[in-house]
Amino acid sequence: MEKSYFPTLVTVNWLKELVSKGGKSAYRILDGSWHVPQAKRDAKKEFQEGHIPGALFFDIDECADKSRNLPHMMPSVKVFEEYVSNLGINNDTHVIVYDNNAQFPLFSAQRVWMTFRVLGHEKVSILEGGLPKWIAENGPVTDKIEVVPKGQYKGKFNSKMIKQMADIMNNLKSAEFQVVDARPECRFKGVAPEPRDDTKPGCIPQTINLPFMNTMNVKERSMKSPEELKKVFESAGVDLNKPVVFSCGSGTTACVLALASYLLGKENFSIYDGSWTEWYRDAPPELKLNVPQ
């Protein structure tokens, strides 16, 4: 069903085999770990202490548009080109990204996947199950950080894959696309706190809630099968034959739903990059539903 030659999801055994063949100049493994502020975890420090051999760290807070005062917004072409070139990545490099989340099979790797795709790079795969599954299946780890020759990456920003607040605001009248929120239902309904102290829970009007974890087999540390994913979208009331924009807290788990829809063959999806963090901060009070007073 996937149209790309490069597999979207790869297994631990697949990656072990790739690594055993050598030829590191053709691919680059990236640790794209990121954790919510309340987790009080330092993803970069953890990477330095142990990672898949040959992996480099991709910091979604660093490779970002920092001018907007919002967490990890999509980087400009210039910022992205410089950042990934310094990771030894060229336009023909196959990028394999993973993250280190004990609870979910992926939590931030899909944001890195989406970032590469927005900036014009389709040769990107995700290690399903991440570092915990790699370790559970006897994959080696190291604290050695390799020095790689600088790449020469040339990017191209696909603006169709990103929606801004003005687009979401206009859609309240035009209803051109569905907006689907990936956050847990309790946050969407305003009854559980957001992971950021300056943001209360709630939702954008006319939004469908589809919690990102519903697309996963959490115990098996995998995404659900295409047949199961189709049912998940249908039961939530999402029509993948129509335009859809995915949202969440800060544009990270929205990319889980983007990934799930891509696994079903959908390619014309977008994410609302600012997501609820921006909407809560900037939208008029009457357009912030279920927000505790």
Unreliable stretches covering 5 or more consecutive residues = none
Global mean pLDDT: 95
Biggest sheet strand order reads 1-5-4-2-3
Strand content: 5-15%
Structural class: alpha/beta
Rounded to the nearest angstrom, the distance between the terminal CA atoms is 47 Å
**Spatial extent as radius of gyration:** 18 Å
Major sheet summary line = 5 strands, parallel
- Count of DSSP strands: 12
Overview of this protein structure:
This protein has 293 residues and is of the alpha/beta class. 29% of the residues lie in helices and 13% in strands. The chain contains ten helices and twelve strands. The chain has helices spanning 12-21, 43-49, 77-85, 109-118, 130-136, 165-174, 185-188, 226-236, 254-263, 275-282, and strands at residues 9-10, 27-31, 56-57, 94-98, 124-127, 162-163, 178-181, 207-209, 216-217, 222-223, 244-247, 269-272. The strands form three sheets. Strands 1-5-4-2-3 form a five-stranded parallel beta sheet. Strand 7 (178-181), helix 7 and strand 8 (207-209) form a beta-alpha-beta unit. Helix 4 (109-118) crosses helix 9. The longest helix is centred in the C-terminal third of the chain and has 11 residues, at 226-236. The model has no long low-confidence stretch (mean pLDDT 95).
